[in-house]
Specification:
By secondary structure, the chain is an alpha+beta fold. About 35% of the residues lie in helices and about 30% in strands. Mean pLDDT is about 95; it is low at about 1-5.
Length: about 220
């Protein structure tokens, strides 16, 4: 794999969450209570460092579950190995609770691929490269638009008459989304198995991503 010069890589703080995959175009709320991650979020806001939400491959270090809220706020929990491809964005502090927990929003706007660790402790900051889509042919774009339309109709059918969802998917906002954006932002409305979502996140072909989503919705 050809990596760009480390001078051109992005520094990103990693926030691993098992079974959690996020996509560009989403606003992801975080409830942060572990000491290391409270420190990380404050550092990222202060230094304007993006935060990456990462699905995890395995547990590296397991600790006893906290027995009280006070214990949860005073000690770090399990340590995980994240997948090397994830989404990230700017972190915004919404509020701080009386006991010190942080409620934040992460404005996910990019896909990244891990290259190397810049910092390991007390939290991980990684140097990453952008993960960009392949350029689609005109024929691929046409097929992708058809797949997007099929997914919209399938979601409406599966909703069991949910008028709010139907109105949203039929709105100009959703109808005018590009297939590339739709293949990510549809996950603000639905959730598939985390490993399926991870494979979709890693795929650089919007046509393949849309095909995968439709097959899962159709139980194929």
């Amino acid at each position: 794999m050809d990596y760009m010069s480390t001078d051109n890589l992005q520094s990103v703080a990693l926030f691993p969450i098992p079974e959690c995959v996020v996509f560009p175009g989403m606003v992801f709320p975080l409830h942060v209570f572990e000491p290391r991650y409270r420190n990380m979020i404050r550092h990222c806001i202060r230094e304007s460092i993006p935060v990456a939400i990462c699905h995890t491959q395995k547990t590296l270090h397991e600790v006893e579950p906290a027995k009280s809220k006070e214990e949860a706020l005073s000690k770090n929990q399990d340590t995980f190995k994240p997948y090397p491809i994830f989404s990230a964005g700017r972190c915004e502090l919404v509020s701080t609770t009386d006991d010190g927990r942080l409620l934040v929003n992460v404005y996910i706007d990019r896909r990244l691929e891990f290259v190397e660790e810049e910092q390991t402790l007390p939290f991980v900051i990684a140097k990453c490269k952008p993960l960009l889509d392949q350029i689609m042919s005109d024929e691929d774009v046409t097929q992708a638009e058809l797949l997007k339309d099929k997914i919209i109709h399938r979601l409406i059918a599966l909703s069991g008459g949910d008028e709010d969802l139907s109105n949203k998917l039929n709105s100009d906002l959703w109808q005018k989304k590009t297939p590339q954006a739709f293949s990510f932002e549809v996950f603000s409305l639905i959730r598939l198995h985390a490993d399926v979502q991870q494979s979709i996140l890693e795929n650089r072909n919007p046509l393949v991503r849309l095909n995968t989503i439709l097959k899962v919705l159709n139980n194929e």
